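thread: overnight batch results

M.L. [08:02]
morning all. the overnight job finished for the chain we discussed friday. pasting input first so we're all looking at the same thing
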Amino acid sequence: MNLKGKFEQSSAIVQILILFFVIMVGLVFVTMVINTIVMVKFEIESTAVTKEVINYMIDSSEWTKNVQFFQIVGVFILPAIICAWLFSDNYKNYLRIDTFFQFHTICLVMLSMLIIIPILNSIYEFNQHIVFSQYFKNLEKLIKNQENFTKNIIDKMLCIHSCQDLIYTILIVCVFTSIGEEFIFRGILQNILHKFIKNSHIVIWITAVFFSVVHLQFSGFLPRVLLGAYLGYLLYYTGNIWVPISAHFTNNFLGVINFYLFQKEIRLAKKIDSIGGGSTWWLSIVSLVIFFIIFYHIKNNKSNTSNLSKEF
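M.L. [08:03]
and the structure it wrote out:
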């Protein structure tokens, strides 16, 4: 039975359920692969995966990166391609990976991600001061625990000891993660939501909220929502998924390089992360103005207009 484009006319609810199902299947498959690798590496039976082995996997930077690679491919990239294949006769057109874009646009997008840093830092600082009411203290505790766990995993992934390790980290955290998350959120979810929400701007912001929630880091919730919205608008105005992917890549790349260069200079790293906040608040205003100038040029680039008919 040919399932290609089988669910193209299905409702948004059906497509969301299919997306969820495919992601869950991918997650189960990835878990089986990881368990198999563990059994072979430690020469143990499936029922003998001890707490010590699991702790070793959590504490090992190499294992953390390997698990992240399998998750990105099995839970994001492959499910996105499968769903695009199920939802359209042309999955490349559905994901908008085959449309034209100029190198000039990519350069502007990457520059914008550098310029936007002070703005995101200032919003992050504001986000840090948000306090839950007394009625949600248990929820706050749960969120904080999950956030600490997520932070620990990120720190392990960014633990870099050599140039080879740096290249491997860039491939996983910057390249594969950017492709996987953009395929799922901007490529698939943004398309599905637009089936019953005709206002593209609302769709972009809803997708951005989901994008931020999935990262399980409340302290960075607001800046990540804004980042997700920007990525959504890049797809909206250029009609090419590689444009937001390049922006996502740049954001992650700057984070990896910053951590790598200043992992032993904690004070200096904190100063860099605080640019745009506190006494340097004025830098966020300057960067905001420059950012909108760059975004205006990206939005009105005539070379992108031929792709807009394929958007949503």
